[in-house]
Each structure stands twice: as structure tokens, then as C-alpha cells.
Amino acid sequence: MKTLGEFIIEKQADYPNATGELSGILSAIRLSAKIIHRDINRAGLTQDILGEAGDENIQGEAQMKLDVFANETMKKALMARGDVAGFASEEDDSFIAFDTERGRNAKYILMTDPLDGSSNIDVNVSVGTIFSIYKRISPIGSPVTLEDFFQKGRQQVAAGYVTYGSSTMLVYTTGNGVNGFTYDPSLGLFILSHPEMKMPFHGKYYSINEGQYVTFPEGVKKFIKYCQEEDPTTKRPYSSRYIGSLVSDFHRNLLKGGIYIYPTSTSYPKGKLRLLYEGNPMAFLAEQAGGKATDGTHPILDIQPTELHQRVPFFVGSTAMVDKAKEFIEASA
Ligand code: AHG
Ligand code: MN
Ligand code: MN
Prior knowledge:
single chain; alpha+beta; 8-stranded mixed sheet; 5-stranded mixed sheet; 8 helices; 15 strands; 23% strand; globular; binds 2,5-anhydro-1,6-di-O-phosphono-D-glucitol; binds manganese (II) ion
């Protein structure tokens, strides 16, 4: 039985020059995950957790109480450890420079979707937390700047998610494969349960909000029809599975093989998901597990960000399926 804490220390030993800062950040995320897990599990029992907070985020989406709570939890845990120089979140208008002596001298920044799957909070369906870590490019000793957050996903040092599902799991990568840890609430420990996770090359699930079908581009519509056709050699039709929490849909497809799509549409001309908080971290995990992530045609990790809350069309999952979707999109272009 190996705990997440033991695993982090073991991995750190592979890098003799490591300062322990990345390990510190992962510990702060682990603590946040435990706190958010606890509160989600009590959600129906108190008025403090369910429902809308009464405000909108900068993207005009209604903030749920749990969005705000998870965001504050992550921020406080990271600030308390002092191992990040800056923080950006889906729920905040702008980035935050941790402008303390320690913050200015820290070398990493973190971006997060603190609570993914907001529409599922009130109905007891799985939600998640996503994080993405980069080395800053501004000089150490100064407050972080916007350019620290505008790095291509390829530059990520670590990324991962927590899925608060039938059990709570933390899954992450530091660029050397993907490992999953299941939370044992009775011990208060995350235990390595899914070492070296690999996404099946061929999948059997497609995950898309099919209710929005008429708003999708031609290539996406044709790919959906392809998934539904009968063909024993490719084991079609594929099954449709859509939870409406990217983390949960991704997690299933990682384990079982499948594709998740949030395309451009007439309702969301640039896509709905956010490049920095959702696209990049999930793309890094997908590639590290042998899968793929594109905007339909190009790798997500090669996109140059230009806005903090930038949206992106997102195709992620089993390599064969993401490649197949690309064929349909290119043929309809
Ligand atoms: P968030 O709750 O962080 O805003 O993200 C919700 C995202 C994603 O998790 C999910 O797959 C998708 O939005 C669902 O959108 P639809 O309800 O439009 O399908
Ligand atoms: Mn989200
Ligand atoms: Mn969110």
C-alpha cells in the first residue's frame, strides 16, 4: 500500500536538485481535495453548500456556492504553503500574484478549475477539480505577470484532477506517465490504486451533449453518425455516455476508452471549455496516458494562449477516435 505522500517523496528523489516546491504544491492540492471531498459528501445536509452563490463569474456563468468555496479552499491551501508565485482560476476575473517574500521567490504558478461540473452539484452527480502547474518565466524575486500564465500547454510541469465520484480519486502527471490515487476517508489518505494509467487506443464510448446536435458543425455531426453506424469490424455502434462533468467523462474514457467532445457550436462559437483551466491539463494527461487532445485538428498543447479565460473546442480521448473525428472535420472544412 503506497500513499500519495510516499509516492511524491519517492518521485522527488529522482531529481537530486529538486527543492521540494512542486511536492509542496501537490500536498496543498491533496489537502484541498480532502476538504472539498468532505463538504461535497455533506452537501445535502446543510444549506451552505448547495445552490447558487448569487453572483456571476467573469464569463457570465452563475457561480454556485461550491464553485466559490472550492476556489477559496484551493487558494488558501496554496497560499498557506507558499510554494506558488501566482494563481489563476476559472472563478476569478484576473490572476493573483502571491506578493509575499515567499511568493515572489517561488518558481511555479498554478491554474485551476476548482469545481468542474457545476450543473451536477445540486443533484448528487460526480464533479471534479482540475489543476495545471507551470514554471514562471518572469524573474524570480518579482511578482508574477500575465505572460507567466500565457504559456503553451506543452510547457506544463504537472497537471491533474480530482474526481469526487462513487469514490474520490486524485489523478496526476508530472510528464512521466499518469498515476491515480483513491481516497480512503477512514484513513484520510490517498492510496496508489491505478499506477501507470493507459488510455485504450480504440474506444467504445462517445461523450458529447447530443441535445445540442443541430448547433454543431457538419464534421462533428457526421462523426456522431459514424459512431452510431453498425459495423462489427470496428465494434460500432459505440455507446453514448455523457455525465456533463468533463472530469468524470474524461476519467471514464481514460479507463475504458472513448472520446469526449465539446465542439464549436452556434451557441458557443469558440467552444465552451477553457483552454487554460480545462483543455491544457486534460490534454497533458491524455497524451501522457497514450491518448490525444485536439481542437478538432491541431494539438491543444501547441495553442498559444492569448487570454486568461480563452475558450477552445475540445476533442480528447482514445487516439484512434480523436484521429477519426479529425478526418470528418477536415473532410467537411
Ligand atoms: P464548469 O462546471 O467548470 O463550468 O464546467 C462545465 C463544463 C464541463 O465540465 C462539462 O462537460 C460541460 O461544461 C457541460 O456543458 P453542457 O451542459 O453544455 O453540456
Ligand atoms: Mn469545468
Ligand atoms: Mn468550474
